[in-house]
TrEMBL record:
Keyword Iron: yes
Any one annotated GO CC term: cell outer membrane
Source organism (scientific name): Methylacidiphilum caldifontis
Entry keywords, A to Z: Cell outer membrane, Ion transport, Iron, Iron transport, Membrane, Signal, Transmembrane, Transmembrane beta strand, Transport
Single annotated GO MF: siderophore uptake transmembrane transporter activity
UniProt name for this protein: TonB-dependent receptor
UniProt main location, coarse: membrane
UniProt-annotated location(s): Cell outer membrane
Length: 742
């Protein structure tokens, strides 16, 4: 479990010991994934990753469509075996993520460096490492997972050598049929994974995999609407609704809430404002080929080719929002030349390692999108859910929506909203990374990269001729990074890191809107971080503490991106004195700020005040308003987070894990009136492992706390819905898994 046990390649492309990496990073292996519950439900439940790292949280309103968590308050990026998966926006707009293909992953805080590069701004990224073939012998397992609230998963995993020592394979399948705790929310997936490893000689290695999946699911975004302080504190929900024909958004033709809101009544935490026939359908595939050529002791060549495809339809009738991605795909190829040599400087021996090369990406998107955001109109307690559909409103025609070609009935888009686009682009990226080791005490890193973009974008088929727009542009985005790590003694490392790069804004599927101006392609993403790492008690205790400052941007619709900054302090401890016992603890103190001072408007929300405030002052729900220009502290994000886990395993194979999470209070809106107070969640698991069998019983929230999560975490795009949607945390619930190994 100790981070010092394995070298990590998710920062500089080549493996380095964590004590030699001048960044904050959390390696999350299979054991830690199981202990924290990451992927145990087949989708990224919001708080499991926070148990492993206090800096990360999945957005509770986008569970099925996120591939990376919110990291340090901003959506993270997704990498797979070192290549960015970019057919998304801020890690959103994905098909349901497939954890079945994942062997382990690294959570890196701060933007990527010169080797990996980045298309979009972020405060961190995850690098998923896919399942590898078995070269030693044939092995496999079949497994089944069953949990409360109709939670069913099953799968099989087999692999072994085809030609001893030279050719091996692995094949894996996972099926999911989950109804989840909340009403009208489900997820049905089929995932197929196959990998090959080929080592014909000591100097050459090829790794290949292919993953394919389908999903029929409920796109969430809105669960329980009308969050008020009374709902959060006492479970009381404001009832009352308009006739569906009168429902609208904005202020025009939108009556005051006092005309139809009634008294507050107790409501089940399972209740939702979901339309039961929301549409979520996806087909997705990815493949990757990694070739490694060992030329000599001083020269290696690595070629990494990645392909990703998705076709997805997600229509939420209650908000109204539609996202239809018709065959988006990307192809990326990176070739690295790695050399090492020694030199002398004033009788001091210097060891050099250089990783340089070229990366090429082609991406094509055809995306239709609309968003009206009127989910606060519906009464989740007394109204018929079949009425939670904006298509029933006589005001629907007033919002400039057009039918999406080839979409299921009910699919409409807005042509000029910065998310709808038909785009394709090339990205050409030379890079250079140089590491210098001085007397095995000092490591210096210098990196540079230049991303050249050649972009064509236009409004897609189905757009009326008079609204047609197109964009052709060429852009250059540089990146430089430098860092130093100094080993005071072998078990103490001091480090400082500086990362400076320009990135781009993105539309829904990672493409570019034809309305983007030049500033959308030059968004500064800067990291300044320093800290100290300790490897104590003869490699049995790892402790790291760091301070950081990050400058970045958050994407907007209709006008330029907004500057944002983050400052914080983080500490992490892992202690494993023997093979029976380990403990992990983490703490984050962070504040973030959005700077809207130079804009004609401040931040936008689907509703700029709580439902109770609207009732008291006679204001309309779903006003789709904005706040004044100015600086605003981060919403939907706790200033302080503590997480901890502890495991003990007996020689018999029986073991126990207990995890605890504490979140400080967090505000829902930019008026800072309604807040989720300090809360805690405790999870546990009992497990057994033998040569042939593994069994695990996960017990989530075993103290049955009534906790809440905001619709949008930090600078998530869905923070706009924080006054129209809130997520009741799941109560006590249990899930069992059994696996037979052969």
């Amino acid at each position: 479990m100790l981070p010092t046990d394995q070298p990590i390649s998710s920062v500089y492309g080549t493996p380095f010991a964590i004590m030699d990496i001048p960044r904050s990073i959390t390696p999350i292996n299979k054991t830690l994934m199981q202990s924290a519950g990451i992927g145990s439900q087949g989708w990224p439940d919001p708080l499991s990753i926070t148990m492993a790292s206090p800096t990360a949280q999945f957005d509770a309103s986008e569970l099925y469509e996120m591939s990376a968590p919110i990291i340090r308050g901003k959506p993270g990026l997704t990498f797979i075996n070192g290549i960015e998966q970019n057919v998304n926006n801020d890690g959103f707009f994905n098909p349901p993520w497939n954890f079945n293909m994942i062997e382990h992953f690294d959570l890196v805080e701060g933007p990527p460096g010169a080797i990996f590069g980045a298309t979009q701004p972020s405060n961190g990224y995850v690098n998923y490492i896919t399942k590898q073939p078995y070269f030693d012998k044939f092995r496999g397992n079949v497994w089944d997972t069953t949990g409360m609230y109709n939670n069913y998963m099953w799968g099989v995993d087999i692999g072994g050598p085809i030609q001893e020592g030279k050719l091996a394979y692995r094949a894996s399948y996972m099926g999911i049929s989950n109804r989840l705790y909340y009403q009208y929310v489900d997820n049905n997936q089929q995932n197929f994974y196959f990998s090959l490893g080929y080592k014909p000689s000591e100097g050459y290695q090829l790794d290949f995999y292919f993953d394919y999946g389908t999903a029929d699911y409920t796109p969430i975004e809105l669960l329980l609407n009308r969050p008020t302080q009374s709902l959060i504190d006492n479970g009381l929900y404001l009832t009352g609704f308009l006739p569906p024909s009168e429902v609208t958004a904005g202020t025009e033709n939108n009556p005051a809430a006092t005309t139809y809101l009634n008294s507050a009544l107790p409501i089940s935490r399972r209740a939702t404002a979901k339309y039961p026939a929301d549409i979520g359908q996806a087909t997705f595939a990815m493949s990757q080929v990694i070739q490694r050529l060992h030329v000599s002791d001083n020269l290696d060549i690595v070629n990494n080719t990645f392909f990703w495809y998705q076709d997805q339809t997600a229509i939420r009738f209650e908000t109204y929002e539609a996202n239809v991605f018709k065959g988006d795909y990307e192809i990326d190829n990176r070739t690295e030349i790695r050399t090492n040599f020694d030199s002398d400087f004033k009788k001091t021996k210097l060891t050099h390692f250089i990783d340089s090369g070229f990366e090429f990406r082609f991406q094509r998107t055809l995306d239709y999108q609309s968003e009206v955001y009127l989910g606060n109109s519906w009464d989740a307690l007394t109204e018929n859910p079949q009425l939670f559909n904006f298509l029933l409103s006589s005001n629907f025609a007033n919002f400039g929506l057009y039918p999406i070609p080839g979409s299921p009935a009910g699919g409409f888009f807005i042509p000029l909203n910065d998310e709808t686009n038909q785009s394709q682009f090339f990205r050409l990226c030379p890079f250079y990374q140089h590491q210098v080791n001085i007397m095995e005490k000092i490591n210096l890193f210098f990196g540079a990269r230049m991303d050249s973009y050649f972009i064509h974008s236009q409004t897609p088929p189905g757009t009326p001729d008079f609204l047609f727009q197109s964009l052709n542009t060429t852009q250059l985005n540089p990146l430089v990074n430098s860092s130093i790590i100094y080993k005071v003694v072998p078990w103490i490392s001091l480090y400082f890191n500086y990362n400076w790069q320009y990135t781009t804004n993105a539309s829904g599927g990672g493409g570019y809107s034809p309305l983007f101006t030049a500033t959308a392609f030059h968004l500064l993403n800067q990291l300044i971080e320093g800290g100290v790492k300790f490897n104590l008690l003869q490699d049995k205790c790892y402790f790291a503490i760091s301070g950081f400052s990050e400058d970045t941007f958050l994407g907007n619709i209709e006008f330029a991106s907004t500057p944002a900054s983050f400052h914080g302090l983080e500490a992490n401890l892992t202690f494993q004195p023997n093979r029976h016992f380990w403990i992990r603890m983490g703490y984050l103190l962070e504040q973030g700020e959005e700077n809207w001072s130079g804009f004609p408007e401040g931040p936008e929300m689907a509703q700029t005040y709580s439902t109770n405030f609207a009732k008291i002052y006679g204001l309309p729900l779903n006003n789709n308003g904005t706040f004044p220009p100015g600086k605003y502290s981060l919403i939907g994000w706790p200033d302080q987070v503590f997480s901890g886990m502890m495991t003990y395993k007996f020689d018999s194979g029986l073991g126990l894990t207990i995890g605890a999470l504490v979140l400080s209070d967090q505000y829902l809106g930019y008026d800072y009136r309604t807040r989720i107070p300090l809360q805690f969640v405790m999870n546990g698991s009992i497990f057994y492992s033998s040569q042939k069998w593994e069994a695990r019983l996960n017990i989530f929230n075993f103290t049955n706390q009534k906790y809440w999560l905001p619709a949008g975490v930090g600078m998530s795009p869905t923070r706009e819905l924080n006054y129209t949607s809130i997520v009741p945390g799941m109560p006590f619930w249990a899930q069992g898994n059994i696996s037979y190994k052969f």
